[in-house]
Amino acid sequence: MLIQYLIVSALICQSFSLTGHYMNGAPINRKFHVHLTRNRVWGVPFEISQVFCGGSIISERWILTAAYCVFKLPSNTQIEVVAGRDSISQRLDPNQQNRMVTSIHIHHSYPGSNAQHDIALLKVKEPFDFNYYVGKISFEKINPVRILSDYEYNTESTIDDLSNSVAIVSGLGSISRNYTVIIPEYLQYEEVSVIDNEYCRTIIKEAAHYSLE
């Protein structure tokens, strides 16, 4: 990895995309939250391109996201990061900033799908201009979470015990209480409890669409 320590907005087992589910979510304004849009058709404006994932600004030129969002994308895929916009349908918000992604760095041990090491960094071509609507995750409000080496992950010898603490997840996942997809108009958030790593492993292995082998 490029850096040993990252700031993340939640320490939970699963990352959420547009098809993830939030329960009892509430609208929120998070200046560090961004939309990732992709466009594989040259000449088609990004205003009508697809929002496919989210991320968090950790510095002027770096975005933290889930590895599965950018894993094995077609070579001709263009990714643009949209910051300062909380609405999914308002394509031309006057407060938004758009930046093109120039490089993608996926965790070297990520095997694909929603599995362990599901983390990636995106570097944008031009730095974001931080203001009231766009900014990075606050170091004063968010605790740093160390990215473990493969040895540490497998032995659990130095895992920080953050279980039973409260984290916040934010995004545009479905807000329905069943498998009907209902995408909210505005960015949502939910407070969740952090579970210990052993229990996390257990429930992930019990899910049919996960594999940690």
TrEMBL record:
Lineage: Eukaryota, Metazoa, Ecdysozoa, Arthropoda, Hexapoda
Gene3D superfamilies linked to this entry: Trypsin-like serine proteases
Keyword terms: Disulfide bond, Signal
GO terms classed as biological process: proteolysis
Record-level Gene Ontology MF annotations: serine-type endopeptidase activity
Record-given protein name: Peptidase S1 domain-containing protein
PROSITE patterns: TRYPSIN_DOM
Domain Peptidase S1: residue ranges: 22-213
Any matching Pfam family: Trypsin
Signal peptide: 1-17
